[in-house]
Amino acid sequence: GAEAAFDRALALDPGSLPARAARADLRFRRGERGGAASDYRALLEAAPDTPGAWNALGLIASGNGKADEALAHFRRAVAIAPDLVPALINLGSTLIGRHAPSEALDCLDHALDRDPGSAAAHLNRSVALLNQGRAREAADAARQTLALEPGNAAAMSNLLAALQYDPDCDAATRRRAAFDWGARFASLPQIDHAGRDRNPARRLKLGYLSGDLRGHPVGIYLTAVLPHHDRAGWEVHCYANQRGGDAITDKLRASSDRWAEVATLDDARLAQRIADDRIDILIDLSGHTNGNRL
């Protein structure tokens, strides 16, 4: 296979940068983060001004939940190649997560100057604008993303979120957009619910699903709710669709009967997990905001 060929090339010439880069890219595409990161670092030792390698290391760090490291790698990539669109987008996206939407918009606007047809840049720009409270502009950017990629579910979610915050948007427009999202993207996995206990005297299982079970308004409000459920009648499950947490997360976990980290589960596996837990009532706390699983 291709990797074996790159291995042979590196055995013959350990200093071959093209072979090292090709094997790193192959491993990265396969999702082999550890092997890819080792190859990219070896490549950068020999050629430290390789922007694509810094960008890839940023993506690997981001996937491992190391936001500070990712940010440093993306900054290095952009410093070397200021017009490298993927790195500009990744830097912008990371800055959004660090609550720096103004700097993120600078990166994303520059990316769009270089590639006006980048759906990823338009989508991230929509998120940054919404974080600044510029709902109407955020909706327009989401629509531009959908014009380029009609099947982009994240763009449709951000459009719906933006419409909620636009004071000039009427209820009929929001309703049409919601139905449009449902027609395009809502699909229910086939889950077997056979064997559910129908005993009316048993405790009911209540599930909360959110990407904000942390120091966020949702998480903070929920700290006043979870401890007050009547445990004689309810068993409380929380599904945290987020990476990591904080003191609020710890407090919510302590107030739950069952806690599950589900950010790494795809939709089908998450749906099956909830079914296997035999949840009677599931409450979604994200809507169309970041980290939702609609």
Written description of the protein model:
The protein has 294 residues and is α/β, with parallel strands linked by helices. It has helices at residues 2-12, 17-30, 33-46, 51-63, 67-80, 85-97, 101-114, 119-131, 135-148, 153-165, 171-185, 217-222, 247-254, 267-276; strands spanning 204-210, 234-240, 258-261, 281-284. Helix 5 packs antiparallel against helix 6 (85-97) and helix 6 (85-97) runs antiparallel to helix 7 (101-114). The longest helix has 15 residues, at 171-185. The protein is globular and about 70 Å long. The two termini are 39 Å apart.
Write the layout of secondary structure elements.
Layout: H1 2-12, H2 17-30, H3 33-46, H4 51-63, H5 67-80, H6 85-97, H7 101-114, H8 119-131, H9 135-148, H10 153-165, H11 171-185, E1 204-210, H12 217-222, E2 234-240, H13 247-254, E3 258-261, H14 267-276, E4 281-284
Parallel strand pairs: 1-2, 1-4, 2-3
Helix pairs in contact: 1-2, 2-3, 3-4, 4-5, 4-6, 5-6, 6-7, 6-8, 7-8, 8-9, 8-10, 9-10, 10-11
The overall average pLDDT, rounded, is 91
Biggest β-sheet: strands ordered side by side in the sheet? 3-2-1-4
| Helix-strand topology string | HHHHHHHHHHHEHEHEHE
Please outline the major beta sheet. Answer: 4 strands, parallel
Instruction: State the helicity in percent bands.
Output: 55-70%
**What gross morphology would you assign?**
globular
Radius of gyration: 22 Å
Task: Tell me the total number of β-strands.
Answer: 4
- Helical segment count: 14
How far apart the termini lie comes to 39 Å
Structural class: alpha/beta
Strand percentage lies at 5-15%
Low-confidence stretches: none
